[in-house]
Amino acid sequence: NDLLIVCQIAALPMGRYRDNLFLEALKHNESFPPSAGVFGFSGKSNILYLFLKLEPELVTGAKLATVLPPFITIAGEWTE
């Protein structure tokens, strides 16, 4: 019943670059509150994703207006 907002960040090729991105994504997950998004990785598709999970009772226009801007900012920075 939760609302899941997902942004595909990038396909990650094997190698040191991917390892470095994993490390930075884990640091982000530890440093930022979950309301800013959580990084996840699909080993099947080799794609890094940013997720934002909202409980149904918290989904209001005001709540979305609060949580989407930081989520979009982080997604944009990581996509670049």
Topology overview:
Elements (H helix, E strand, L loop, with lengths): L2 E9 L4 H16 L6 E5 L4 E8 L6 H19 L1
Antiparallel strand pairs: 1-3, 2-3
Could you explain the architecture of this structure?
- With 80 residues, the protein is an alpha+beta fold.
- It has helices spanning 16-31, 61-79, and strands spanning 3-11, 38-42, 47-54.
- The chain has a 3-stranded antiparallel β-sheet.
- A hairpin with a 4-residue loop joins β2 and β3.
- It starts with a strand and ends with a helix.
- The mean pLDDT is 89.
Please describe the structure with a list of short key phrases separated by commas or semicolons.
three-stranded antiparallel sheet, 80 residues, 44% helix, 2 helices
Mean pLDDT: 89
- What is the helix fraction of residues, given as a range? 40-55%
Low-confidence stretches: none
* End-to-end Cα distance: 32 Å
Total count of strands: 3
What is the overall silhouette? elongated
Q: Provide the succession of SSEs.
A: EHEEH
Taking the sheet with the most strands, its summary is:
3 strands, antiparallel
CA-based gyration radius: 13 Å
Structural class call reads alpha+beta
Order of neighbouring strands in the sheet with most strands = 1-3-2
> How much strand?
25-35%
Number of separate helices: 2
Brief overview, please?
The mean pLDDT is 89. With 80 residues, the protein is of the alpha+beta class. It has helices at 16-31, 61-79; strands at residues 3-11, 38-42, 47-54.
